[in-house]
Design goal:
It is built from nine helices and twelve strands. The longest helix is centred in the last third of the chain and has 38 residues.
């Protein structure tokens, strides 16, 4: 720590220099986060000092969290759904498996079945909770094989996980089939829709993935991804509005005397930002955003195939993957690579048509 404080000018000159060291979003093609919408930024700034960890002090902000959960409950075909705002998909997934473990508290050596394509947060969750993680293979289409998942179920299984919008390939697992398997075996079924939850409902032909399917117990969704909220903001939704209370612990010195959340201090600002975007854009606005991202995904795939780089999978959401050497992408573009060594690009709202054309132009010139 500095012995003597800096002047404001010195401080912000330093901070500005550090900010310029960050990668410009114009060249970021690998992230599932994006530039926040202007209304999210404005709302975030209005609620900067609020703490949802002590909601009795901030009843207005707390009411926004409840309203955000109601918005998602309606979107996911369960208006009475319970839930709360998390820091993102990792926390939501940890809490979902925590709920599953509590529901089957008498199970010795509990295990959970996740797809091979599951987000790495499930490894964290299983390590923390002492759960065996069983990985079900994916098929040639990179979706979880439901039959092979069912074959992994035994008397110690407490939950199944399906993904709606996989991180690497943008695929939706066979959620309807998995929901039936969960019902047949009386298992907790969690859908990780951290990415796809704000894409699939706005597609022309959305595949069933939410509470419209009777077997779905919980859903994770991240407004700070396609919802264009400020970071961090996720949500965990529960079909049963009272389910989360099974995680309650005593919090005697707060304005609430019990708490089920994983974090203690929880920022209200990104919650206000998330709600602001949903209510500003509405269903029509979100359909337009998703349609634009899907159109850009299609254009990218067509352009890359013209250049000789075939797609690795036909995605359900706005994630494109290609068979392409790792040294084939010119700087300053930032892309990523799947564990199977496929080039991966996420067509987020900031990756607009102009950026797609600029990328294809640079790829074409490099490989002319």
């Amino acid at each position: 720590m500095l012995n003597k404080g800096q002047s404001e000018e010195e401080l912000f000159t330093f901070l500005s220099r550090k900010k310029r060291e960050d990668i410009d979003h114009d060249f970021i093609l690998s992230s599932m986060c994006t530039i926040p919408h202007s209304v999210a930024v404005r709302a975030h700034c209005m609620f900067m000092e609020t703490n949802l960890g002590d909601p009795g002090l901030f009843p207005g902000t707390y009411s926004l969290e409840r309203l955000l959960i109601r918005r998602f409950g309606s979107l996911f075909h369960c208006a009475e759904a319970g839930g709360y705002a998390t820091s993102g998909g990792t926390e939501s997934n940890i809490q979902a498996l925590r709920l599953a473990k509590v529901q089957k508290s008498g199970t010795r050596s509990p295990n959970v079945i996740v797809p091979e394509s599951a987000h790495f947060s499930f490894k964290k969750a299983c390590d923390i909770l002492g759960l065996e993680m069983r990985r079900a293979p994916v098929g040639k289409d990179y979706r979880m094989d439901a039959e092979k998942a069912a074959s992994l179920v035994d008397k110690h299984t407490i939950a199944i996980v399906g993904v709606a919008g996989t991180t690497e390939y943008g695929m939706v697992d066979p959620i309807a089939n998995l929901a039936k398997i969960a019902q047949q075996h009386d298992l907790f079924f969690h859908v990780d829709a951290a990415f796809g939850g704000m894409v699939i409902p706005f597609l022309d032909r959305p595949v069933p993935f939410d509470f419209a399917l009777p077997g779905v117990t919980t859903i994770a969704v991240d407004p700070h991804k396609m919802g264009m909220s400020t970071i961090p903001c996720g949500c965990l939704l529960t079909r049963d509005p009272g389910l989360l209370t099974t995680l309650n612990i005593e919090t005697p010195y707060l304005t609430v005397k019990q708490e089920f959340t994983l974090g203690g201090t929880r920022p209200g600002a990104p919650v206000a930002g998330a709600l602001a975007v949903l209510d500003y854009l509405g269903t029509e606005g979100m359909r337009a955003v998703v349609a634009g991202c899907m159109k850009n995904t299609g254009r990218l795939i067509a352009g890359m195939e013209t250049l000789g780089f075939p797609q690795a999978a036909t995605p359900d959401v706005n994630v494109a993957t290609f068979v392409c050497p790792e040294d084939a992408v010119p700087g300053p573009w930032r892309v990523s690579w799947t564990r199977r060594k496929h080039l991966r690009i996420v067509c987020m709202p900031h990756v607009h048509a102009g950026r797609i054309e600029a990328f294809l132009k640079d790829m074409g010139e490099l490989h002319a």
